[in-house]
Amino acid sequence: MTRFWMGVRALGRSLHHGRRWLSVQSPSVPSLSALSVSHASDKVFKPLWAPQTSWGHLYCTCSVSDDISTWEGANEAESIASRGWQINEESESDWRSHAASVARSLQLIKARMRWKEKLLRLKQLDKVLENPDLWQDPQLAVRHSRERGDIASKLKSVRQMEVDLFEHVSLAELAHEESDNQVEVDATRALADLRQVAKEKEIAALLSGDQDACSCFLEVQAGAGGTESMDWAAMVLRMYKLWSINRGFETSTVDEVYGEEAGIKRATLRIEGEYAFGYSKCEAGVHRLVRISPFDSNKRRHTSFAAVAVIPIFDSESHIDIKESDLRIDTFCSGGPGGQHANKTESAVRIVHLPTGITAQCQADRSQHRNKQTAMAVLQARLQHREMAEQTKANAHHTAALGEISWGNQIRSYVLHPYRMVKDLRTQYEVSDPDGVLDGDLDGFIFSYLGKCADN
């Protein structure tokens, strides 16, 4: 019975804080088997906390209202963070530590996703969608509706976490006051789970750009240094292939031009997967290698350069119409390894967009038709990016054209001699295991850069 009245007290706290759904059930008290507060517009009834006990079940459930006006003033994360509870990374049994960690993560998430700006944009979109004349342009209406849905979904998921945090803390405090160890343990476990979810959301909040969720093309080009740099470009290409595999992305080679002696002059990868562009964009820039040259008989130290550019792949609805008369399509024999067919059949395709001079080519497939389709996809992405770059410069530094690839332009240095280190010059993040980095261990560099960009 004591636990049942704890539920009633939790109900009172939730009412005081304007909760829309709360239900307490106890099979051992038939006449008071259900206490509920509901709102007709709420359709989601999400179990928040349901510990198993010898006396029955105690359920406290709460869902977030779809009315965005109720989200503006609410800030449970700020309230709990202000209590000054210490965050202990190692203690699993300290519910205060879990609560403080979740509150800190939520504050960081809201800052990175620009919570107030998103709420303002949501209101603007609601006004736009209320205009009946909007549907005279169905494509525009669908675009606004989709944007509204995406923003609302992201905001609501964060708001739900805030509500969950408050409910878990309320129950933990009540259990502590009543000296009910079992309920306190269950509440602590729920907060620990929420802490893990908050950490994952914290990372996802780093990728809040309009194109971050897209797949992408990643281009590698050898710079100053001749054969040395061509070999280094091949190493960089391998690094990104391994990194893509580690992250679960699908990777295919669109175009690869081999060097005369070793390595590659340039190559283009297609990386497909959720947030492929969001992660890959951090790697755009010049990469510098210092090592003892394997091509120098005197074993001297050489410096090589390779550049990386990243271009998002947009959905089919945003494609630019390309006139056939604006294209020059050339076919030629594929270069490099591949056997007699690759060397004798003109399967490789190069497409030039005459008005802009933008070029795309593909020689990855034995079929000229499939190579043409892939080259057109690359050209489409480059033209789309060019058009967006003219409208806004927000992402220009991520997908800028490959310029001068030499001293003074590098974003990262890979040193294999006389010491071993990889250092990002933008964030000062460094590691002493270059072999691991070259085998695709790039997440430390990526998250460090994303964090710096988000916090600026």
UniProtKB/TrEMBL annotation:
Lineage top rank: taxon: Eukaryota
Protein biosynthesis as UniProt keyword: yes
Positions of the Peptide chain release factor domain: 173-283
Entry keyword set: Protein biosynthesis
GO cellular component: cytoplasm
Keyword DNA repair part of the UniProt annotation: no
UniProt-recorded Gene Ontology molecular function terms: translation release factor activity, codon specific
InterPro entries: PCRF, Pep_chain_release_fac_I, Pep_chain_release_fac_I_sf, PrfB
Gene3D superfamilies linked: 3.30.160.20, 3.30.70.1660, Release factor
Pfam families (UniProt xref): PCRF (PF03462), RF-1 (PF00472)
SMART domains associated with the record: PCRF
Assigned protein family: Belongs to the prokaryotic/mitochondrial release factor family.
NCBIfam families: prfB (TIGR00020)
Protein name, entry field: Peptide chain release factor domain-containing protein
The species this protein was found in: Ceratopteris richardii
Lineage: Eukaryota, Viridiplantae, Streptophyta, Embryophyta, Tracheophyta
